[in-house]
Write a structure and sequence with these properties.
Elements lengths: L2 E7 L4 E10 L4 E2 L2 E2 L1 E3 L5 E3 L10 E5 L4 E5 L5 E7 L5 E8 L2 E8 L4 E4 L7 E5 L5 E6 L3 E6 L7 E5 L5 E6 L5 E6 L4 E6 L6 E4 L5 E6 L5 E6 L6 E6 L7 E2 L6 E4 L6 E6 L2 E8 L5 E2 L3 E5 L11 E3 L5 E5 L11 E3 L2 H12 L1
Antiparallel strand pairs: 1-2, 3-4, 5-6, 6-32, 7-8, 7-31, 9-10, 10-11, 11-12, 13-14, 14-15, 15-16, 17-18, 18-19, 19-20, 21-22, 22-23, 23-24, 25-26, 26-27, 27-28, 27-29, 30-31
C-alpha cells in the first residue's frame, strides 16, 4: 500500500484536488497504515512484507497439539467447528479488515463468506447450513454456509454494538453480547426484537446456550474479576458460579457433560449435569499452553465428545522488516505539491 497526499482546506476542513502518491510499500493493519511523521519532518514507517500466519491446531485433553492448518493466514480470533465437525468458520484478517472464511478440514479448501472487512464472530446454525455473524456496529447478519446468495440482516439495533455468540439448539434464538451496554441479550432468528437476558450494572458477555437449550453460560465481572456463571433459560431460577479463580470464554461440548473455559493460558473443565437438575462440579485444569486467548471473545472450540479442541497456536512470523526512516520528508512533500500543482 502507498501513502497518498491530498490537498487540505484548513478553514473548511475538507480535502481538495486529487490525491498524489507520496510513499509506496507501507504496511497496513486493520485498514490502518503503519507510519508516523515527526514535527521536524521525519517519516518512519513499517514496510509491507509477508503476513504472519497463525496455525490452527487440534489439541487433546493433555495439551498436546497437532497441526490442523496454516492456510488461512492471519486470524482475527474466532474459530467455530461446524455441527458435523468437517468445517471451520474462522475470522481471517486482510488489509481490508476482518472477514469470514469457511475451511473444509477434510479437503483442505477454503471458501470466502464475506468481503470488504465486513464479517466477524461467525456462529453456525444447528443444521450447519447457515452462519450468523456480526458486522462492526449495530447489525447481525445471516449468510449461507456454502457462500451462495446474499447475506441478509437478522438483527439491527440503532446506535448499538452487537456481537452474536451462540445459536439455540432448536435454531430459533441467538445469544448476543450488547457491547454498548455490557449486557447479554437473546434475539429470535425470525426477526423479532432482542430482549435482555442478563441486565446489570456490571459487564456481561460471551453467552453460550447449553446443548439442551435450557441454560446459558456467560462471563461477568460483578465480583471484581471475570468469572463464569450459568443461569436457566428463560428463567427464572438459581444462578450458579462455575469458575473459582477467574474465567473467560465458556464453551459447552455437545454431550453436555462438561463446561470448558479459559483462565489466562489454562484450559479448565467443570463436570456438569443438566438433568434431572443442574449440578456443577469443581473446576480442574486440563492443560496450560501458549494458545491464543481473548479478553472478550471466544478463540477456541471443542468437539462434541469433549476430547479435542481447535485452538490458535503460536504465531509463525513472516520475514522481519526493519523500520524505514526518511529524513527531511516534509521537504519532499513540498516538492510533490509543487510538481502536481
Amino acid at each position: 500500500m502507498g501513502l497518498a497526499l491530498d490537498g487540505f482546506d484548513s478553514d473548511g476542513l475538507e480535502t481538495k484536488g486529487p490525491p498524489s502518491l507520496a510513499v509506496e510499500g507501507v504496511s497496513v493493519n486493520y485498514r490502518r497504515a503503519l507510519f508516523s511523521v515527526s514535527d521536524t519532518g521525519t517519516l518512519v514507517y513499517v514496510p509491507a512484507s509477508e503476513r504472519i500466519a497463525q496455525p490452527l491446531e487440534w489439541v487433546d485433553r493433555d495439551g498436546n497439539p497437532t497441526p490442523l492448518t496454516t492456510a488461512i493466514g492471519r486470524l482475527g480470533g474466532w474459530s467455530r467447528l461446524s455441527p458435523d465437525e468437517t468445517r471451520l468458520a474462522v475470522e481471517g484478517i486482510s488489509d481490508e479488515g476482518p472477514d469470514i472464511w469457511i475451511y473444509d478440514i477434510e479437503r483442505g479448501t477454503r471458501t470466502r463468506l464475506t468481503t470488504g472487512g465486513t464479517g466477524i464472530d461467525p456462529v453456525w446454525s444447528p443444521k450447519g447450513d447457515a452462519i450468523a455473524y456480526s458486522r462492526p456496529g449495530p447489525s447481525i447478519y445471516l449468510a449461507r454456509a456454502d457462500g451462495g446468495g446474499t447475506p441478509e440482516p437478522l438483527v439491527t439495533v440503532d446506535e448499538a454494538r452487537l456481537r452474536v455468540t451462540s445459536w439455540s439448539p432448536d435454531g430459533k434464538l441467538l445469544t448476543i453480547d450488547a457491547l454498548h451496554t455490557g449486557d447479554v441479550w437473546v434475539a429470535p432468528v425470525d426477526g423479532g426484537e432482542p430482549e435482555p437476558f442478563v441486565d446489570t450494572p456490571f459487564d456481561e458477555w460471551g453467552a453460550r446456550f447449553s446443548p439442551d437449550g435450557g441454560y446459558i453460560a456467560y462471563v461477568s465481572d460483578e465480583s471484581g474479576r471475570d468469572e463464569i456463571y450459568v443461569q436457566p433459560y428463560p428463567g427464572p431460577g438459581e444462578r450458579w458460579t462455575v469458575s473459582t479463580e477467574g474465567g473467560r470464554e465458556p464453551v459447552w461440548p455437545k454431550n453436555g457433560r462438561e463446561l470448558f473455559y479459559r483462565n489466562r493460558n489454562q484450559l479448565v473443565a467443570v463436570d456438569i449435569e443438566l438433568e434431572p437438575t443442574f449440578l456443577v462440579g469443581a473446576p480442574h485444569v486440563l492443560f496450560e499452553g501458549p494458545f491464543r486467548t481473548s479478553a472478550s471473545g471466544t478463540y477456541y472450540d471443542v468437539t462434541h465428545d469433549g476430547k479435542r479442541f481447535v485452538m490458535i497456536g503460536t504465531v509463525i512470523p513472516g520475514p522481519q522488516q526493519p523500520l524505514v526512516v526518511v529524513l527531511h520528508w516534509l521537504e519532499e512533500l513540498e516538492r510533490l505539491v509543487a510538481t502536481d500543482n
